[in-house]
Amino acid sequence: MTRLAELAVANNPTFMTLNTLGVALYRAEKYEQAIEKLNAGMKANPAGGTVMDWLFLAMAHHRLGKKDE
Questions:
Q1: CA neighbours within 13 Å on the CB side: how many for 29?
Q2: What contacts 23, CB < 8 A, 6 or more positions away?
Q3: Is the model's pTM score more than 0.70?
Q4: Is the pLDDT confidence value at 67 over 80?
């Protein structure tokens, strides 16, 4: 599931492809990696991130027991 998203980031590392990879990693239960990619995507986004970025970031932190994050 993450393979295509990883390929997209390798070919075109934009905030949109990083977000997609972050979501794919979350769905694959790779929460630390998801947080890393979502944060990278938010940093690359001129608006600072989207609602979906923040939602998946919060859910990944929650899954890791980092409820204060």
A1: 0
A2: 5, 34, 38, 52, 56
A3: yes
A4: no
Q: What's the distance, CA 61 to chain centroid?
A: 11
Which value, to the nearest 10 degrees, does the dihedral of the CA atoms of residues 22, 24, 27, 30 take? Answer: -60
**Structure token digits, residue 9:** 């980031």
Q: Tokens at residue 20, please?
A: 């997609």
Q: Exposed, middle or buried, 21 (CB in 10 Å: 0-12/13-18/19+)? A: buried
Contact yes or no for 41/29 (Cβ under 8 A): no
pLDDT at 1 over 80: no
The alpha carbon of residue 18 and the mean position of all alpha carbons in its chain are separated, in whole angstroms, by 6
pLDDT at 23 over 80: yes
Residue 38 near residue 57 (C-beta atoms within 8 A): yes
